[in-house]
Amino acid sequence: MDILIPHSRRIASPFGVVLHRSDHEAVRVDDRLWPWRTTVVDTVLDVGALTDEDGQLAVLASAFQRRLVTEAQVRAGLDRRHAHPWRELLSTVLAVTADGAESPLEVRYAREVEGAHRLPVGTRQHATVPGRRAHHDVAYPAYRLVVELDGRLGHDGWAARVADGVRDRGSAASGWLTTRARWGDVTLRRCALADEIGAILSSRGWGGAPQPCRRPSCMLRAA
Description:
The chain is α/β, with parallel strands linked by helices. It has a domain at about 105-223: 3-Layer(aba) Sandwich (Endonuclease, Chain A), CATH 3.40.960.10. The protein has 10 helices and 8 strands. It has helices at about 25-30, 40-50, 55-65, 70-80, 85-100, 105-115, 160-175, 185-190, 190-205, 220; strands at about 1-5, 20, 30, 35-40, 125, 135-140, 145-150, 175-180. α6 packs across α9 (about 190-205). The longest helix is centred in the last third of the chain and has 16 residues, at about 160-175. The protein is elongated.
């Protein structure tokens, strides 16, 4: 069990209890609930601080998907935590999630594939067929290209694959090309994926070219 107490208070930690001290405990506790507990925003930041980048992104994305927090609330909570281990990551990611990214994989694509290699900025959760509820992870409307990001969740099983095919064919009938990238593409092949997406965009009229990212091993740097 984890318990939050004022920073000035000094008590021995009971067996099985981890004490956390803060100068801001009054604003971090939701006193409308009983037993009192930390707010959703502070819980997202607390849990994320104990894990790695992907863990923090997963917790944040889950809270956004369930409409438990807003970008403004997370920003306000982060402003009170100058020593948060993922402060810089979250500051960058909040702009992406506010733009519509709904999963850790979408956030990483936006940061590490699209942004890091200076690809055109895609539209998140875009509907290619007017009147239909189906939305696509990333779309480049000027080039009629859709990038679907198949993560470890949400794209498993026969029924999901059938639904993906129906959606892809519906987009194709409207002149959109759909390409798919998986977790390994975004995390392990990010530079190669940027090169591949850039080539597809170029074939559909983009006049630019993907640029090398900051990684010394970026294949685009070698090229």
